[in-house]
Design goal:
Blueprint (H helix, E strand, L loop, with lengths): L1 H17 L8 H22 L3 H15 L4 H16 L5 H11 L7 H18 L6 E5 L3 H12 L5 H10 L2 E5 H14 L10 H8 L5
Antiparallel strand pairs: 1-2
Length: 212
């Protein structure tokens, strides 16, 4: 039961990151997220009195079941996190990210934590000399397109119809920082929820009653 609770706690943060429109899945982002979650889990686990083995197991479950990383790859990541947490010299960058995750324990504002995760994605990429990721930007907000389609239909949209609206919507690719400026300009006029493309069906169910 304790392992389930710990997995659930770190899984909530992982879900919030994956549901964010800024999320771009690649090995680097998944690795950074894994290290931050490991630090978060160690801090929670310390309060719960669980063993390091339980922390490892909880992070492994979260990475495979919530993040969707391969089991073998995730076991390697957890082993690296375990070693880096105990010995800074093993991998200073990973040790730093684990330390960041530890500071999340006790912070009640989930939005602040998610923003910090993305700030660390950007920081690691910049220090490594890597370009920022590109993201899909919809010229008309998906929630407004879906709401209009549902009003036109006069009935709830099916999952296939929601995916059809997403796939047919006019969009473009932008570097993440440019996309953030674009959306900030829109939000200054009227804040509109943004839906994560891979989870659009579930997220549409959560917001539709407030829009249609």
């Amino acid at each position: 039961m304790t392992l389930d609770v710990l997995t659930g706690r770190i899984g909530e943060l992982a879900d919030a990151v994956l549901a964010d429109w800024r999320w771009v899945r690649d090995d680097l982002s998944v690795s950074i997220l894994g290290m931050i979650l490991y630090g978060f889990a160690t801090a929670i686990g310390r309060d719960m009195g669980v063993t390091v083995a339980d922390v490892d197991a909880a992070v492994l479950r979260c990475m495979t079941e919530r993040v969707g990383a391969a089991a073998k790859w995730s076991r390697g990541l957890v082993a690296e996190a375990n070693a880096s947490a105990r010995d800074q010299s093993h991998h200073p960058g990973q040790h730093e990210l684990i330390g960041v995750g530890r500071t999340y324990h006790g912070v009640g504002d989930r939005r602040t934590l998610v923003d910090n995760v993305f700030a660390n994605f950007a920081s690691v990429r910049q220090r490594a000399g890597l370009p920022e990721p590109t993201v899909t930007v919809f010229l008309n907000p998906l929630v407004m397109l879906l709401a209009a389609r549902e009003r036109e239909k006069g009935a709830l949209l099916s999952e296939a119809e929601v995916l059809e609206v997403r796939d047919e919507a006019a969009c473009t690719q932008m570097p993440l920082s440019q996309a953030e400026r674009f959306y900030a300009a829109l939000d200054a006029q009227m804040p509109i929820p943004r839906l994560a493309l891979e989870r659009i069906w579930d997220e549409w169910q959560a917001v539709r009653e407030h829009l249609v």
